[in-house]
Structure formats: structure tokens, C-alpha cells
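Appendix C: a fully annotated inverse folding record. The material below is reproduced so that readers can follow the format used throughout the book. The structure is listed first as C-alpha cells, followed by the designed sequence.
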């Protein structure tokens, strides 16, 4: 594996309360991330779509994120 591409640590499935697919601007740039929260709403993990040397989103990762969002579009926040 390339340096910087591995996730370390463990997230146990029974600890997960919700998973959010988040998109929006950050410092005027498009930004996409997966946010994982525990049952109390505290953050467990976040992963962001990476960028290239010119600070552009990695197109294949962005597309995979958008495909994931489309696949789960019918699921809504059930806490409300």
C-alpha cells in the first residue's frame, strides 16, 4: 500500500450510531466526506475525498462517493 492510504484502528459495528455522506464547500472548495458517529452522536471516524497536487478532487474517488450517495439516497436521518 502507498504511504498515507491505510486506515489504522478499529470501529466496531455495534458502536456505530450513524453514517453521514457529507458534501459542501470548505474554504471555497468542493468537499466530500464520510462521517461515522457513535450512538451518542460523537464522531468515530471521518474520511475525505482526496485531492491531487493541483488541489483538485480525485475524480475517481469523487465519482465513487457520488455513486455511494446515489445508492443510499432513500435513507434519511432517523433521529428526527
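Designed amino acids, in order:
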Amino acid at each position: 500500500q502507498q504511504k498515507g492510504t491505510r486506515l489504522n484502528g478499529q470501529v466496531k459495528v455495534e458502536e456505530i450510531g450513524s453514517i453521514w455522506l457529507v458534501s459542501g464547500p470548505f474554504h471555497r472548495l468542493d468537499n466530500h466526506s464520510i462521517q461515522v458517529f457513535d450512538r451518542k452522536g460523537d464522531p468515530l471516524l471521518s474520511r475525505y475525498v482526496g485531492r491531487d497536487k493541483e488541489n483538485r478532487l480525485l475524480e475517481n474517488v469523487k465519482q465513487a462517493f457520488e455513486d455511494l450517495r446515489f445508492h443510499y439516497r432513500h435513507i434519511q436521518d432517523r433521529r428526527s
